[in-house]
Design brief:
single chain, three-stranded antiparallel sheet, 210 residues, three-stranded mixed sheet, 7 helices, alpha/beta
């Protein structure tokens, strides 16, 4: 089949759309193929809560990504920090005694940029007040390094990532088919972040090959 395009992305979940967008950013034409109708498109992404785990230094890192910066609770929220060392330790806790893999190192190093790029593409984030924070002395205290989720959850993330692309031959792996990222499990919120990180890697790699 010759579609006259540069490469094709199969599916329209988080990883797939990240790959497609990365390919377009490299000046390539990309075709996204999704067997589901619009109401069911988005793969597993649509069934998640939209929470994303990533490295950050403090509250100042969070505010530019929030969809509702006028939320009165923000001034009373302690986001804390989630340094790379802590993310690394959390991943290691699921490795069953094995050292961190190269893919896990990449996930840690590129997690912040991945979320920043989503925000630059119009994806809105909100603090996870209901599940990942508690109130103490009149303040909302976030815990666990998992502080933000996409507005509208997984459906919101999937919807914001969909667009019209052009396509063609060339398939590069991303998403859950990438080996070495998660071994026996993973800390919550890491799955969506890995989709963006390795989706973008796949898209840029396909653009170079094409």
């Amino acid at each position: 089949m010759n579609t006259g395009r540069d490469f094709v992305v199969v599916g329209s979940g988080n990883a797939a759309m990240s790959a497609a967008i990365a390919g377009r950013e490299q000046g390539r034409s990309v075709l996204v193929i999704e067997k589901a109708g619009r109401d069911l498109a988005g793969g597993n992404t649509a069934y998640t809560a939209g929470a994303m785990r990533f490295v950050y230094d403090g509250a100042e890192d969070r505010l530019p990504r929030l969809g509702g910066p006028d939320d009165l609770r923000l001034s009373r929220t302690d986001f804390g920090a989630y340094p790379a060392e802590r993310f690394a330790a959390d991943l290691l806790g699921f490795n069953d005694g094995r050292p961190r893999s190269r893919e896990q190192q990449a996930l840690i190093a590129e997690s912040d940029d991945a979320v920043r790029r989503l925000a630059s593409r119009g994806v809105k984030f909100e603090p996870i007040y209901a599940r990942q924070s508690f109130e103490k002395d009149g303040r909302h205290v976030c815990r666990g390094g998992l502080t933000l989720a996409t507005r509208g959850g997984g459906h919101g993330l999937a919807e914001s990532g969909r667009a019209a692309f052009r396509g063609v031959p060339g398939l590069h792996a991303c998403g859950e088919m990438v080996g070495g990222v998660f071994l026996t499990g993973h800390p919550g919120g890491s799955g969506l972040t890995s989709g963006v990180v390795f989706g973008r890697r796949a898209g840029k790699g396909a653009a170079r090959v094409g």
